[in-house]
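To assess whether the prediction recovers the assembly geometry, we first specified each molecular entity separately, as shown.
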Amino acid sequence: MKTSNLHSFFALLLAGFALTSCNQEGCTDSAASNYDSGADSDDGSCDYDVITPAEYVFTDANGNNTVNFDGQRQRLNMLSEMTTYLKSSNTPGTSVDATTLLAMYGNDGYTWNDDQQLGMTGSSKQLRSKTAGGDTYWTETFEGFMTGIADASAQTVEGETSGAAGVSGVVGSSTSSSQYLQSAQGQEWTQLIEKGLMGACFYYNISSVYLASGKMDVDNSTAVDAADDKFYTEMEHHWDEAYGYFTDATDYPTNGANRFWGKYADGREDLLNSASRLSAAFRTGRAAISQNRLAERDAQIEIINRELERCAAGTAIHYLNDALGNYADDALRNHELSEAKAFIMALQFGANTSVNTDAVNTLLGTLGEDYYTVTTAQITQVRDDLAALTGLTEFASNL
Amino acid sequence: MTFLNSEKRPTGSAMLPVGFFISTLCLVLVAAGCNPDSDAREVTFDRGPFLENTVQSVILPAYSDYSSQCQALRNASEQCTAGQIDEQDIVSLRGFLRLTYLSWQHAALFDFGPAADRVLYLTTNTYPTDTSEIVAEISNENWTPGLPATLNSIGLPAMDYLLNHASAGEIADLMNSEPARFAHFQRLIDFLAEESSAVLYAWEHDFKARFVSSTGTEEGSSIGMLLNAFNEVYEQGIRKQKLGLPNGIMTFSETPQPHLVEAPFSETWSVELMHEALIGCENLYFGDRMQGDSQQIGIDDYLKSLGDFEYGIGLHNEISGQLSTAKAAVLSMQDPLGQYVVENQSATYDVFAELQSLVVLWKVDMMSSLGVLITYQDNDND
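The predicted structure of the complete assembly is given in tokenized form:
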């Protein structure tokens, strides 16, 4: 090797050392989204993506659990118990009692089964006060459904058991073993109450209360009461309350796909990805709050509001299509139209206003009140109008 | 050192070759490890032309024929002079009704999209029909066909009753002595003619483009809707309703139910209609009306594109052979089918077995070969 070549070799070697040891500024944290592997001096520019955990589990810096939605779980369990009680009236000769239903609704003197021992009996939690913010028009509407089903179920005890066009009572399916207590017009109170409260109570509180500015423009720096194990900030807690109205399972959709919004989002997963999008948005938004990334939080609120609306509208459309499929079967058609009505009603309670109260009333007016004399043209028009309002036209005949 | 500082190090890219190599290696490993069947079931079949041909050569002709036959029957009824209907008029109307019934067997297979929106399947051919309800509705001026409560007293079965429940001369006399009876017959065919042309219109003006452009196989895709509707109509509407219920094999008591046959009052159409329904299935399967003797792209070509395997060409050969067997078996029965199922119940069980074989080939084997999910509910046991 010639000397000159040796010189070049060492010069290159030296250059190589200099390259790795010289001062270049940038983000040096490999966990950051703008990590600069060439930088060897951190300039404070590191930017981090919100890290979304696989489950809805969040802790503070000391590892304390910060998630609590016990109040929401109580209300979900109340509606589960009430629904079970309502459905008992689908057996002819079994009545449900109006006083009992009203006591359940207002959690006023009713003794719950409370399988999970949450202290529901006598607790301050109730469905009634949380129905559309306690708006009397809506609470009276639901109380009207409750007295309606109580009266009709009492008639089946007195022997007027069979429902038909113009006669309230239990209607049996001609193609399956299903039977449902329905009004003289084929409307099913149980569905109007259960799915109706999913809208007026759960959806309303998620979208129009807890994820709205009044509950989001709050403190996010200090634990509410660490001495009382409330390690969450006020903002974190409000987010958790919204989540608890969607599902009370931290590992959704592994669990929690069995009732209410968790169930119907899961049902719309194949075509609309409702469950995965909602679950991810709730987890990402909560993580963003814990990292005080409020722009990211707001982006997730937008997703949640949009996806809940698509889920509610998609589920209504799904039931309208089912009603067409079972058009000749009075029990199933009426049952499915009652579900569709309740999900359409729910749409007015969200922060997204693609289907506002006027639009809901127009859609329900098109459907008409009597499900025994509804035409296929009415059903398809409601379906197609609703799909157009919510951007679901391409799915309208498949949902 | 300044020159070193000014020399930008290509951050990241220095790592690229190794990273690229590793990720490529991973991809190869994943592909080899997780998908052993991919070479065997490589689908090169282009579903776009298949859907296009199915619409042009099968679905639209089926609806067009059916709609034309409805119109022809309607025209024939309008040629009759109310109050002066004679035996020959009734014979003529019967001939048109038979052709309408036959053409319906083809259109019945596409119970999705525009047909499902109007519940065409139920409004056209719900049977057994309720004859006392038909009679009661004759004089009802506010009668609205198509509402749920009318489904078992309208459509082809109601017209089979009104035209066929007695001799042609007796029917003519009845229609003359009770003008509302003939007027009701005209209301029935008016309704069918309007419904059939509405569905044809919807296919031609909107749904066809959507149908042809959805070329996937997922739930809600065109091929998913088409094959689910086909399988459901074949399994429930043909195998079960045309034979499995009337011959008793699908009832708890296994007692023949002669009144459950299709077009029972005709006494001569039931077997022919069942056979025609199989021809409708055959047309859809082969993508034309020539049992595969053409270049039209059908489900048969889809299966053949999967190659020389038991789920490809082998399955196609089985289906093709079983279709011929089933058609011949159906033709071995004789009308009146209601009488035949009573007198030859065990022979009809053999025919049913041939129809059942096609359920297995189509619903189980074909659907899994094509990767299309069955999404309809089987109501037999719930």
